[in-house]
Amino acid sequence: MDATPEQPECPLGESACPWLDEVRALRRRVEQLEELVARDPLTGLYNVRHLHEVLPAMLERTRRTHRPLCLIMLDLDHFKQVNDTWGHEVGNIALRQTARILSAQVRIVDTVCRYGGEEFVVILPDTGLRAAVRIAERIRQAIAETPVEHPDGSLRLTASMGVEIHRPQDDIDPEALIEAADRLLYQAKQSGRNRVCHRDIEEIEPDTGVSTEEKDALSDLFRKD
Q: What is the tens place of the pLDDT at every residue in 109-153?
């Protein structure tokens, strides 16, 4: 059995040690500052710096665990019109509401980041493309169905999304994964907005369920005359 690590002792040999208390307080402060540096001050979500720090490790985890990861790139539609019509404070209210919706629709193991402006990124570890698209559709619907209430009235938003998958066998770096999701987001924008674009699910994750016709064919093979 491993020995229990020794607890730090006061250099003065006293039970109540101001020196140790100060070290612990400084450690807590450093942790708080690290958290602040990783967060977007407006929405409280993780920021793009944090995204670029954690994504490489998440892709490495995908390789080691043989479990896929998906990335959702989201952009609020016609957001410039919100700022131009209602002002930047209403735009900020809309961004904070979007952040709350995103946080409510994902799991605790997922990572939600404000990528910049009205763009957001959601990292979904241990998630296949089929499941990620369902999550993205749920987010899209929640944003469209939740009015943004503000002092001068209310408005409705929609969002366009691109969903990309990273599989253990894929040789792709974090920047390339983000760019691939961004291309799918652009496709959603070009296709009319308020939609989710992704690669062919059946190509990526073929449905292995056996159809009725296939069951009948298999049954014929083993049927006795």
A: 999 999 999 999 999 999 999 999 999 999 999 999 999 999 999
- Rg of the chain (C-alpha set): 24
Pick from 136, 192, 191: which is nearest to 163 by CA? 136
**pLDDT tens per residue across span 162-188:** 999 999 999 999 999 999 999 999 999
Considering the candidates 14, 53, 89, 118, report the single residue annotated as catalytic: 118
| 190 Cβ contact partners less than 8 Å away, ≥ 6 residues apart | none
Residue 14 C-beta-side C-alpha neighbours within 13 Å: 7
- In sequence order, what DSSP letters do the residues of 147-203 get, joined into one string? -EEETTEEE---EEEEEEEE-TT----HHHHHHHHHHHHHHHHHTTSSSEEES-HHH
Is residue 71 a contact partner of residue 124, using CB atoms and an 8 Å limit? yes
- Residue 211: CA count within 13 A, CB half-sphere: 4
Task: Name the residue among 128, 116, 123, 220 with its Cα closest to residue 167.
Answer: 128
> Would 59 be classed as within a structural domain?
yes
Look at residues 22, 20, 132 and name the one whose alpha carbon lies nearest to residue 70: 132
d(CA 163, CA 141): 15
Number of structural domains (the chain) is 1
Q: Which two tokens stand for residue 14?
A: 């006293």
118 is annotated as an active-site residue: yes
Q: 147 is in which domain, residue-wise? A: 44-202
Burial pattern 125-158, b for ≥16 Cβ within 10 A else e, equals bbbbbeebbebbeebbebbeeeebebeeeebebe
Does any domain span residue 1? no
